[in-house]
Each structure stands twice: as C-alpha cells, then as structure tokens.
Write a structure and sequence with these properties.
Helix content is about 30%, strand content about 25%. With about 180 residues, it is of the alpha/beta class. Strands 2-3-1-4-5-6 form a six-stranded mixed sheet, with helices on both faces. Strand 2 and strand 3 form a beta hairpin. The protein is globular and about 45 Å long. It starts with 9 loop residues before the first strand and ends with a helix. The protein binds guanosine-5'-diphosphate and magnesium ion (MG). The site of magnesium ion (MG) has 6 residues, from helix 1. It is a lipid-anchor. It is found in: Cell membrane. Keywords: GTP-binding, Lipoprotein, Membrane, Nucleotide-binding, Prenylation. This is RAB GTPase-like protein A5D.
Length: about 180
C-alpha cells in the first residue's frame, strides 16, 4: 500500500502436484473456499487461487496453482512449474501406486524449477483409515530422506489442510525475508 510502512507485499507461487485423483483440487478448494466436492471431475477453468496471509505485519499473497487434469497424461508443462517457490506433493494414503509416484514428481519438480522450492509431502485422504495402504511411518521416512515437510491431510474433513499450506507459505517467507 502507499501510505504506511507495512506495505511491503510478497507474492509467492505455489504448485500442487501428484497423481490424478489424489485430491489436489479438493485440497485447494478446501483451503481457499472451504469447499469440498465428492464427485469432482478434472479441474475446469481456474488456473490458480490466491490466498492472503499476514506474517510479521506484512501482506503475503500465495498464488496456488492446480493442474487442469493434465497429470493423467504425464503432461504437466514447464510453464506450470515456472517461478514456483513452494510445492505440495500429494499422494492418496489409500492408494499405494500414488505414493510410489512421488519420486517421479520430485524429479519433475527439480527439473523444472529455477530456485529452491519449499516442499510439503502430503498424504491426503487420512479420513480413509479403514482402507489405508500407506503407513504414516512410510510417509515420514520418505519426507525425511528427501528433505520435505510432511503432513497427512483430509480435504473431506479438513484435517491439516490449512496447516499444510500455511507451513509452506511461512517457510517461503522465512527463506526470502
Ligand atoms: P485431483 O485429481 O488430484 O485434483 O483429485 P480431486 O480433488 O478431483 O479428488 C478426486 C476424488 O477424491 C474426488 O472424488 C474427491 O471427492 C475425492 N477426495 C479428495 N480429497 C479427499 C479426501 O481427503 N478424503 C476422501 N475420502 N476423498 C477425497
Ligand atoms: Mg484436479
């Protein structure tokens, strides 16, 4: 803003990646609009949503990008990753194949990013305990070995969704401020 001393604004691009149907779009809609869709099809329309946080009296804007379903064809483009300072790398705790894909997503992120990226490994759908296919320990251990933050979330019941995004945004802020 023009009239005060606290007007130093930050804008951070954050990308959400991971296999199809792990819940990427619902994580974003839960975070940005507190909405969940049980029958969500491939994302239509919106490329990103913006959330504003206040950190240390500064206005911090997170521009959070969602794929438009192109991950189904392993066709996420370099434009999607360009300029990203943070990433949520998502698998579904009830589907092991999506966890097995994580190293490939991390490779792709590394290939396409020009800066250090704050990364959160996200095990989504933790409400599905009864059909869990990946243990918490496995998630933690992969995160540790790759130097990522880790959280299990549920876009359905809201568990840790805000926390996961906020940790990434704060980490980026700490890196650049
Ligand atoms: P995307 O392809 O990664 O964007 O996944 P979507 O957000 O479209 O979600 C795919 C499916 O998983 C949809 O049917 C969602 O309703 C469902 N889903 C997403 N998040 C959760 C969650 O946390 N728990 C449960 N039980 N289902 C979820
Ligand atoms: Mg989607």
């Amino acid at each position: 803003s023009s009239s005060d001393d606290e007007g130093e604004d930050y804008l951070f691009k954050i990308v959400i990646i991971g296999d199809s149907a792990v819940g990427k779009s619902n994580l974003l809609s839960r975070y940005a609009r507190n909405e969940f869709n049980l029958h969500s099809k491939a994302t239509i329309g919106v490329e990103f949503q913006t959330q504003t946080l206040e950190i240390d009296g500064k206005e911090v804007k997170a521009q959070i990008w969602d794929t438009a379903g192109q991950e189904r064809f392993r066709a996420v483009t370099s434009a999607y990753y360009r300029g990203a300072f943070g990433a949520l790398v998502v698998y579904d705790i009830s589907r092991r194949s999506t966890f097995d894909s994580i190293p490939r997503w991390l490779d792709e992120l590394k290939t396409h990013s020009d800066t250090a990226v704050a990364k959160m490994l996200v095990g989504n759908k933790c409400d599905l305990q009864n059909i869990r296919d990946v243990s918490v320990e496995e998630g933690k251990s992969l995160a540790e070995s790759e130097g990522l933050f880790f959280m299990e979330t549920s876009a359905l019941d809201s568990t840790n969704v805000k926390k996961a995004f906020d940790v990434v945004i704060r980490e980026i802020y700490n890196n650049v401020s």
